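Lest this sound abstract, we let one protein speak, letters for residues, whole numbers for local backbone shapes, and leave readers to judge:
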Amino acid sequence: MKPCGASLAAAAAAARSLGAVGDEEKKMATREASAAQEDFPELTAPERDRLAGVDSSLFGSPRLHEDGARTKALLLKAIRCYDAYILKAEGKVEPEVFCQLGHFNLLLEDYPKALSAYQRYYSLQSDYWKNAAFLYGLGLVYFHYNAFQWPVQPTSSEAHSGQRRAIKAFQEVLYIEPSFSRAKEIHLRLGLMFKVNTDFESSLKM
């Protein structure tokens, strides 16, 4: 009987050991979930899922305005959470966070904050030129400032500088991703800028 008793004792010990491992795994999963929740404390899982598909390509899109008030509230909430996360991280922030922050501010037409976030992404991400959504968002910001937001009448050099930046960003989008979802919009904006610059040949090609 002793061997049987010993076997039962060993089995019980093994079961306790497995239970402890299982409990530890559960605790680890809980800690990881809590850490994710702390990064973006106010965003629910469904909200994070919804934001995952949000970028500059939605700018001016009917889809964005189908539920305008709800979308605006979500974007404002996301910006607050991202800003809090950036402050808490003390400089240790993934570049993509700034890119997303730029998109959110752009969609709310807060151009100064969008430009600031995009510039942070540009300075941190060495291969920024591979990100079509970033380039498109940056181009929209430059286009906006050049077309509408000069506090005084710009000098010729200032105007041309803004146009060059917008044109370059839009052209890079078409170069790296010819089938970009807003390619037609890019062609229209490029055509307008070329026309303003009296570059009629390039304008006609758009």
About this structure: Residues 18 and 134 are 48 Å apart (CA to CA). The mean pLDDT is 76.
